[in-house]
Structures are given as C-alpha cells and as structure tokens.
Specification:
The protein is α/β, with parallel strands linked by helices. Helix content is 29%, strand content 13%.
C-alpha cells in the first residue's frame, strides 16, 4: 500500500511520517529521503509518537498532542522507593547536583529538578567583598585515558572559581527553588576566609533564604586558596574545626551543614574529624584533585592557557579519573567516624557506581562531570538503574548477576581455535553443537503463557540499607590473610587466543603463562602467584577467573634468607 513519489521516496505526511495512502503505515529515514542517522532517529520518534496517538484515538482515548511524550513501561521496579533520610532531611532520591558547573544558575537547577534530580548544592557563593571574575579558557578535557574527544571524557580539569554571582542572587534563587520545589532538597554552598564575622554573616544569610542545609566549601583547590579561602582553610584541621564552630554558633544547634573535604591532604579523616568536632552535621567528599593536565608539544604551554602570555595554574581534576581517590576518602571517613553522614562526589557516572559509593559509606551522591559529558537527562538512567539494583537484591534468582546478566559460557566446540588449519574443523564443530542445542531446545515442552509464575520477590531493601555495606571489609594491609592464595584459571571455551595474558605475565609479572605455538592456547603454570594482571588485561569477560590455590604456596625469595650475595658471584 505504500506509494512512492517520482524521486523514489515514500510519499508520506512529513509532519507525522504517516503514509498518504494508508493511515496505519509509517515510514522514515532513507525511505523518505532523510539519509543521515540524526534525521532517521528523529523520523522514528515522530512516527512513534503519531502511531501512539493513532492507536489511542482508535480506542477513544484522548491524547494531549501539544506535548509529545511517549508513555513509559511500568514494572515492579518502578515502585522501588529511593528516598533516604539524612540528618532529619528527606531526600527524594540520593542523586544530586554537585556545587559546580551544573549549578551555575538557578534556572539550571530548576531544569534539573524537573528532570528528576533529588537535590542540588548551589554554586559556591561568597560575600560581595569576595566576588570573583573567571578567566577563560578554564574547563578542559582529560587526556589521561579513554576518549580524548566526544562525550565520554574520563576526566575534566578546571580552573574555574566560585560563583561570579552575588550572595543576594543566590539567596533569592534558593528561596524561589524551595517555593516551587518543596520536596527537593536545596543546599547552599558558601565560602569565606578565616574570619568569624564573615562566616557568621554569610551563614545567617543562607539560612534565611530557606535552604535545607549548608555546605561549607573548604576545599577549592585553585585561586581561592591564594585569597586565604577554600583549600587554604580546608587543609588545616585547626582551621576546619574553628570555622565549623563559628557556623554552628551562627545557625543554631539543629540546622544541618556539611563541610566539603579536599583530597589534597595526607589524611582526609583528620579533616573530617575536625569538622565533626567543630559541630558539622556531616561532610562532602571529595572536591577536585589538584593537578596539571598536559603540555603542548609545540609551545610547551599548558592547557588551559590564558592570554597572550599563555599562563596557567594548577587546576581541579574531576570525573572518573578521581573515582578511586573519592572511594578511598568516603570509605576512610566511614571507617573512622561510623554513622557520620558523607555526601559523596567524584567520578559517579552510573547507578552501579553510585551503589558502590553507598556501599563505601556514602549517604547521598553528587554529580558534575557526568552531566558535563551529556546533560541533566542522565538522571533517568541513574534512577531506573538504582531501582533495578535494589530490586535485584530482592530476587533470589538473580543472585549471580553483577549489575548485568552473567557472561554466557560458549559451547565446548569453541575449544578448537578458529584460525589456520583449525578453521574448517572449528566451523564443523560449531555447526554440530548448534544443531544439537536446537534439537534439545525443541524437545523441551512449552508451558502455556497463563501458566508462567511470577518470580518470587523478597522485601526490596531501601537506600539506607546499602550505606556502609563494604566498610567492614576495608582495613589495613596486615588484616588480610596471606594464606588465602589464588591462581589464574583460563576458560578455554571463551579464550580468543589474543595473547595479552601471556605478554603481561611475561614482561610485567611472574612468567607463569605459557603460550602454545601451535594452538595459541595459554596455559597457567604452577609459578602463578595470583597477581591478577592477566585477568586485568583480558578483553573477554569471565574468560579468566581467580580460583583458590590447591598446591602449597612457595614464595620465590631469589636467594636464601640470610645469605651473603657475594658468595653467589
């Protein structure tokens, strides 16, 4: 029934992508002359929306066509509650905007709340006498790993200062946000130098705006420290305790405030302890890591480089590259100060990473770099992802899932390597295995649809139940058992004979893997010490696993203990 125009393209209503010859037929993309991927995706969305409207209309259901929005699927996962109480404040979900670029203006926070973010920490503001002006360029891509271009940056580095806007602007903004979004949490981020009058004045202003809590920025790693603010205060536990005491006196005994920790110290727990002793309700960990991202090979200038002189300064590194440091800081604070709330930030780019931070002791999560990589809509994935992960904990049949379905084991035929003289033999073996699997599947009687039982679901745990799950397993080196040795085991069914395990073991490990010249199959020898390098570089999920060592563990000392090395020359 589809009719085509003389140019060969389908004849459709371009506003709805519906065929002019049949109201039930939709088309798009190259069939109507739109050859790019972007155009085809847009055509698909347009057709889906108008198809939805047509189906609804056929059943007498009115649709508001002025706001195209396809309905979402609804499952038991959508009913999972993500709210969490922190210091008596109910957070609708644990995902919030960090005090950074996503909170540059009040309108941006407003759009984030509309997308589903649970809370926001304003861009840090100060008294008018401490207003700043940014330089440019000031926010650059990371160059240490993964993509150097595009929307998947592993890190960013910035030399941006605190907000250029006045405290009056931010107090007005906080007031309006709380008026329009009473269920969302708004935390005002403030900064002063080591001056009691300044902290008292600014804290009282912020509390008067209607903020749910305060965050004291004691950790900005660049620029502000040169003015005696930020890092200049946050690296000294005496200063941190003093500032927290001032703020506690200013806001009263019950108002909630968090001190934001810097990672640019030897022991973050000492700073967190000082904040607690000074009266802070909790801490935020971590701010950005001080660093220098890279230098031009042509000019030797760093990037970002400002002005004709191409000057720069050490900036704040953020994003996934900082995640190990953030996880360490959060877990260390949770170990040192049990029950002390921690708002985590640093490399949180997905629901599963967010859950790891909760396990490490975080009570809530703050996001910045992930939004810089995309936009506020990432929250939809975070919310559905965390709901799914919690729901899975209530399903006994999903106990083997590590955030996603386990890798499927290949058929034994894959043992035959598919290269050279083995290729034809491997093909025949795979065909035989596939035929046998098909016959086995066909022999299984099919249950009627009405007879399928719903999976059993235990009580789904809440967010609070995740906080600190991993803390008891994190400790000092000599708390670990040196007798619990493991070795590498290669799954020949999954191995693709790339040789990565052999190369890394040979040149950076313990020469414990042999690589068969004929079959290209790796073999782990008894010299394996369980270092796990091979697993770390293997490109195939579940191909290499670490299993308990079944033979006596003997450490290669090189020369006997107490021996004189000269006697061996």
């Amino acid at each position: 029934p589809m009719q085509f125009k003389p140019d060969g393209n389908a004849d459709v209503d371009l506003d709805k992508n519906v065929s002019k010859a049949a109201e039930w037929l939709f088309a798009g993309g190259d069939t109507i002359g739109n050859g790019t991927t972007v155009e085809a995706v847009n055509d698909g969305k347009t057709a889906a929306w108008n198809l939805h409207c047509a189906v609804q209309a056929a059943h007498g259901i009115a649709v508001d066509a002025s706001q195209p929005r396809l309905p979402q699927f609804y499952t038991a996962i959508d009913a999972v509650d993500l709210s969490v109480d922190i210091c008596g404040i109910r957070f609708p979900n644990p995902f919030g905007l960090a005090s950074a670029t996503p909170c540059t203006t009040g309108s941006m926070i407003r759009r984030a709340f509309e997308q589903g973010w649970g809370y926001a920490v304003t861009k840090t503001f100060a008294l008018d006498k401490d207003l700043v002006t940014n330089v440019s360029p000031r926010i650059v891509r990371g160059t240490t790993s993964n993509h150097h271009y595009g929307p998947h940056q592993s890190a960013f580095m910035n030399i941006e200062l605190i907000s250029e806007k006045t405290a009056a602007y931010w107090c007005k903004t906080v007031h309006e946000l709380k008026r329009d979004f009473p269920d969302n949490v708004v935390i005002a981020s403030i900064m002063c130098a080591l001056n009691e009058e300044d902290w008292t004045e600014l804290a009282k202003m912020a509390v008067g705006s209607g903020a749910d809590a305060l965050e004291l920025n004691l950790s900005c790693p660049h620029g502000m420290g040169e003015k005696g603010m930020g890092l200049a205060c946050g690296q000294n536990p005496v200063f941190v305790k003093q500032i927290c005491e001032w703020v506690r006196a200013a806001v009263g005994p019950d108002f909630v405030f968090f001190a934001k920790m810097t990672p640019n110290v030897t022991d973050v727990t000492a700073i967190a302890t000082a904040a607690r002793d000074g009266g802070a309700s909790g801490v935020t960990a971590i701010n950005t890591v001080s660093g220098l991202m890279g230098l031009s090979l042509r000019t030797a200038a760093a990037w970002p480089a400002v002005g004709a002189a191409q000057r720069t300064t050490y900036g704040g590194v953020s994003g996934n590259a900082t995640r190990p440091m953030a996880l360490k800081a959060v877990s260390a604070i949770a170990r040192a100060l049990p029950g002390f709330p921690v708002l985590a930030t640093g490399g949180i780019d997905s629901a599963d990473v967010g859950l790891q931070f909760l396990y490490a002791g975080a009570s809530a999560l703050q996001i910045c770099s992930s939004i810089q990589n995309q936009d506020f809509t990432v929250i939809a994935d975070y919310l559905s992802g965390l709901r799914t992960l919690l729901y899975m904990q209530g399903r006994a049949d999903l106990g083997e899932w590590e955030g996603q379905s386990p890798a499927a084991n290949a058929q034994p035929a894959a043992l035959i390597k598919a290269f050279g003289p083995y290729q034809q033999e491997a093909l025949q073996a795979r065909q035989a295995a596939a035929s046998a699997a098909l016959k086995a599947a066909q022999a299984v009687p099919k249950a009627p649809v009405d007879g399928v039982d719903e999976p059993a679901v235990d009580a789904v745990p809440d967010v609070a139940a995740q906080i600190g799950k991993a803390v008891s397993r994190i400790g000092q080196y000599y708390q670990m058992d040196p007798k619990a040795q493991v070795v590498a085991l290669v799954n020949d069914d999954l191995c693709v004979s790339c040789g990565k395990c052999y190369l890394t073991c040979n040149d950076t490990g313990y020469q414990a893997i042999q690589f068969d010249e004929k079959t290209h199959a790796p073999k782990v020898t008894d010299d394996c010490t369980g270092c796990t390098l091979c697993l770390s570089v293997c490109p195939i999920p579940s191909c290499i696993s670490m299993v308990p060592k079944t033979i006596e563990h003997s450490v290669a000392r090189g020369l006997p203990e107490g021996s004189d090395w000269k006697s061996y020359i």
